[in-house]
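Extended Data, record TYRAAT2-like C-terminal domain-containing protein
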Amino acid sequence: MMEMLPPSADILCTHPMFGPESGKHSWKDLPFVYDVVRVCNEERQKVVDDFVLIWELEQCSMVPMTSKEHDSFAASTQFITHTTGRMLAGLNLTSTPIDTKGYESLLGVIDTTIS
């Protein structure tokens, strides 16, 4: 991105680590990753700071992290979660009157990954 954008372009990379299902009731304590790659001057730094503050006020857990670190973590955690959710969804699992906590957790993986 640094090579593709002009030097005058600010770069703020963000990734809220939640989706419509996991964040539907609240964003409190849900991780929001951000990487301030380049800010060209103090005035624009204030815009970046204000952007981050908006999410802090929504009670997201703001996680400063390089994009490379994010990609490394997300490649494994998101892959296994979404793959597992899709495999479980293919089994057409449903809740029963005698669900264990473990089974409920598996149904939760489906709910948070399939929409």
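Summary. The CA atoms of residues 7 and 68 lie 21 Å apart.
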